[in-house]
């Protein structure tokens, strides 16, 4: 696993405990915790924040279960979508050599916000994770 230094030292980037309990009830397909994440904001506007361009580095997790897709950053769930949720189709997935990139328009998820956001997860096998998500 390509875990971040924060995860190796302090376990930063684990799934939240509430989500861990839910995953134990559901069938786990794939889990990567403590991976490095870059969050890229482009022309982002919300009621309290505005960024023309900003990059935030963090530690997080990706979890795929039989019924849902989750991402978390610093033990806070950032994306929670069921496989039948139409919002999941609005996310563009790309793969580089080391990263799974998720691009989406924030207005599809939050009516008060606008702009583009990219999550760049440094995965062990990003192509495998993308295929697991796209082929659901």
List the helices and strands and how they pair.
Layout lengths: L4 H6 L6 H9 L2 E18 L4 E16 L2 E6 L2 E7 L9 E4 L3 E7 L8 E9 L3 H9 L2
Antiparallel strand pairs: 1-2, 1-7, 2-3, 3-4, 5-6, 6-7
Strand content: over 45%
| Mean pLDDT metric | 91
Let me know the number of strands. 7
Helical content class: 10-25%
By helix and strand content, what is the structural category? alpha+beta
Strand order of the largest sheet: 4-3-2-1-7-6-5
Radius of gyration: 14 Å
Low-confidence runs (pLDDT<50, min 5 residues)? none
Continuous helix count: 3
Shape: globular
H and E order: HHEEEEEEEH
What distance lies between the first and last C-alpha atoms, to the nearest angstrom? 23 Å
The major beta sheet can be summarized as:
7 strands, antiparallel
Give a description of the structure.
The protein is 18% helix and 49% strand. By secondary structure, the protein is α+β, with helices and mostly antiparallel strands. The protein has a seven-stranded antiparallel beta sheet. The longest helix has 9 residues, at 17-25.
């Amino acid at each position: 696993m390509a875990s971040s230094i924060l995860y190796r030292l302090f376990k930063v980037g684990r799934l939240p405990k509430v989500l861990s309990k839910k995953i134990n009830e559901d069938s786990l397909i794939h889990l990567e915790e403590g991976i490095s994440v870059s969050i890229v904001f482009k022309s982002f506007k919300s009621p309290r924040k505005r960024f023309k361009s900003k990059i935030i580095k963090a530690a997080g997790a990706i979890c795929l279960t039989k019924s849902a897709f989750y991402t978390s950053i610093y033990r806070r769930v950032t994306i929670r979508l069921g496989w039948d949720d139409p919002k999941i189709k609005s996310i563009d997935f790309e793969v580089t050599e080391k990263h799974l990139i998720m691009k989406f328009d924030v207005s599809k998820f939050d009516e008060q916000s606008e702009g583009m956001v990219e999550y760049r997860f440094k995965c062990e096998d990003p192509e495998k994770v993308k295929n697991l998500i796209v082929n659901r």
